[in-house]
Amino acid sequence: MSRPTEIAPSAATAGPSTLWLGIGALLAGVGTVLLGPILPDVSQRWNLSDANSGWLIFAKFIGAFLGGISIPRKLRYGILWGTLLSCIGFALFGMASGLIFGCLALFVAGIGLGQLIASTNILAGNRYPEHTGSALASLNFFWSFGAVGTGVLVAAFLPRLGLRNLLFWIGAAFLVTAIGGRLRRRRDTSTVCVGIKSISKLPRTVFLQFACLLFLYGGLETCLTAWLTTYTLRYTTDVHLLGGQSGTVLLLAALTAGRAVASLALRFINEQVIQRISLVLSLLFIIGLATARGTAALSVWCILLGISLAPFFPATFGLLLRRSPPAREAGFILAVSGLGAAVFPKLMGSISTYTGSLRAAMAVPAVLTLCLLITGTLRMREAAPAPYPEAA
After folding, report:
1. For the chain, which end, N or C, has fewer CB atoms within 10 Å of the first or last residue's CB respectively?
2. Which value, in Å, is the radius of gyration of the alpha carbons in the chain?
């Protein structure tokens, strides 16, 4: 049994106050899903095919992957630089007038989002080690709340402000959050004791399994949020309700409500049990979504799918943080979700262009869910982790 390890609070738990962490998570939700609701408008303005539109998603989440793997040991700096880079990236995207410049701007925004999301989740896990899964579910409730509000935000303000001004206002919100989080910080004066779980490198098999899970899940969630607005506009008559955003709004609203419930459920139910139930139901609901005919059926499947997906990320990342990995290692695993978010939605766009059917491309999230279920049920050989001191 390893001895209790004390971690300098400046590295482990110091950073923006809980209020500003929540606001940052909310804006991260807006930034993560923003491209999906505005993608039909951008594609029409720039005359892009689905395959070319997929490059915008690819650039953004490749940036998120690089941002996640480059988080600093002092997590408060990751949050600060993440919000500033997100501000710059979305402002530049507002000024873009073509695919190449748009990809570069979203790449910068993606780096910022990767830094912000990884640093915030790890910081929250460090602050609440006894109920990590529940704490992460609460934090991701704010992410989901920001995500669900994005569709409404776009539907309400895009026609009035135009794309450029809307993106400038979103960039300004990130800037205000960077300043506010820096001014209102939690300053711990004592070291944080992490009980009998010392910070240690993960066994290789454990590391690979968690990385694979987050890689696949990042692709799954982004396939849905990035293409659902386009899917709704093409296959339903729901064009005038929220400008075609209703499918995305319903999915993310259900995801938000589901994470609020998951925050409580994870206090009493094993994370692995919830993880597997989530995946089985999600697979069934994705098949239903892919075969839906009409607005009402699509709406029902979106709600059910959002609820079923809600507990997967907090349960999985909670399982990871309970093993007390170094921040860099946890950040890399979380960042791999950005890599999946870059690859699989791009694949969806390519399949849609090749087959002439976005409905056929829904096979991608269905296969991803099946792969997640298989990967999550694999039993790993536990190895004794080697101590790994975390520097302040």
Report:
1. N
2. 20
State the average pLDDT for the chain.
81
- Burial grade of 41 (CB within 10 A; 0-12, 13-18, 19 or more): middle
Strand 15-16 and strand 192-193: the pairing is unpaired
Amino acid at 165: N
pLDDT tens for 85-100 read 999 999 999 999 889 9
- Would you state the pLDDT for residue 186? 56
Question: Given pLDDT bands bounded at 50, 70 and 90, which one contains residue 15?
Answer: low
What does the pLDDT read at residue 200?
62
150, 34 Cβ separation under 8 angstroms: yes
What is the structure's pLDDT at 184? 58
- pLDDT tens track for 319-337: 887 787 876 787 788 888 8
pLDDT above 90: percentage of residues in the chain: 29
